[in-house]
Write a structure and sequence with these properties.
The structure is a homodimer of 224-residue chains. Chain A has 224 residues and is an alpha/beta fold. Chain A contains nine helices and five strands. The first copy, chain A, has one domain: HUPs (Rossmann fold, 3-Layer(aba) Sandwich). Chain A has a five-stranded parallel β-sheet, sandwiched between helices. In chain A, strand 1, helix 1 and strand 2 form a beta-alpha-beta unit. In chain A, helix 4 runs parallel beside helix 5. The longest helix of chain A has 15 residues. In chain A, 48% of the residues are buried.
Chain lengths: 224, 224
């Protein structure tokens, strides 16, 4: 296993984009970005990821997952509208796709396994985790253990943003020279570009840039 | 969450078939069988699973996974020939699909989550585990923890065959009335029906029936 390279799970959003630049600085070996095409309603995420990888000058692969669509029941892949209310029964956002990060990281580990790369990087964050239990540190640690037992591997899952606020993530992106790429990331739950500015994801993003005192290169691009 | 029903991961082989009949006896609620169409080279596995579910009178769903094919590098989904030798580097069989059981069980848990079913059943066995690290009890326990943290669920993964020899599994199948269904299961790595009798999977199967002193209903069907 090469401990020098890394596979970054790149969604095309601001967090995973920051992680891509973090990985480039952290690891001396080859960095690869992978994006999952899991039937997300907003195809612009895939274009954003490809654009970001290109700006970062990192090889990029899109891997398909056609399974979530057959499970149904959430707003990111199905016909349900995104709601800012939590589900009255589960207490989770209706954008929660059960098992999504578990599946992404397990496939990423299988991908890394084939390439003998031992580092995985994901942008999940517990701080602003927005109600997604699969973004918590405990979940990632348990999954890392399951993956290493299940593949007889020594994968390290890195989560550089785990305890950062959105403000701190924006500052990190600036320090890593990721702001240009940030202008091509995608966050809006409504899939709009320019972003709608009103959905929970847009609001959280705007707050982070505002608190960091840095103009969002994405909105700036459309105001230009 | 209903603790009365169960989702059984049914591959169409003898172990998962035995588990399906085990679940029917164990849980008073509805039993469902799911099979993953992950691009396995031998499509007969899917037909076997459907036939077994039909004999067991259990609803059956086939869920697609188109991701493994894009990862490459193994004999069950790729163009590589099945080998009875272990890989000199990894020490694993070349039929090992990295992460396969982790992915199957996580998707099965997501499926069960949508249906508010808390029991999952899988036929993995450590005893005769044939070199697959994702069949070990430690792996399954770690994964159960990751799933429950990641989905805020209380899924129980049941592995009734974990410490059984193939002989004991055959005896259990007989005691559960699963022998008729066993005649339509599929085991042969070469995808042949009647089974080739010479591949590692056929040899392991034949040994189990022989030691249990029970004729294999599958081979009996072709000798008929």
């Amino acid at each position: 296993m090469s401990e020098e390279g890394a596979v970054v799970v790149l969604s095309g959003g601001q967090d995973s984009t920051t992680c891509l630049f973090w990985a480039k600085r952290k690891f001396p070996g080859e960095i690869e970005a992978i994006t999952f095409d899991y039937g997300q309603r907003h195809r612009i995420e895939l274009e954003s990821a490809a654009r970001v990888a290109s700006i970062a000058n990192v090889p990029h692969k899109i891997l398909p997952i056609n399974t979530f669509n057959t499970l149904g029941g959430n707003a990111l892949t199905g016909e349900i509208e995104v709601s800012s209310e939590l589900d009255s029964e589960s207490g989770l956002p209706n954008t929660f796709v059960p098992g999504r990060n578990l599946i992404f990281l397990t496939f990423a580990a299988a991908y890394a396994y084939q390439r003998k790369i031992s580092n995985l990087v994901t942008g999940v964050a517990q701080t602003d985790y927005s109600g997604y239990p699969d973004c918590r540190e405990k979940t990632i640690q348990a999954l890392e253990k399951a993956i290493n037992l299940g593949m007889e591997s020594e994968v390290n899952i890195h989560t550089p943003l785990m305890f950062k606020s959105k403000k701190e993530t924006v500052e990190l992106a600036r320090d890593l020279g990721a702001l240009k790429a940030m202008g091509y990331t995608h966050t809006c739950y409504h899939g709009q570009q320019p972003p709608c500015g009103a959905c929970p994801a847009c609001i959280l993003r705007a707050k982070g840039f505002e608190e960091a005192g840095i103009p969002d290169p994405l909105t700036a691009r459309f105001e230009g």
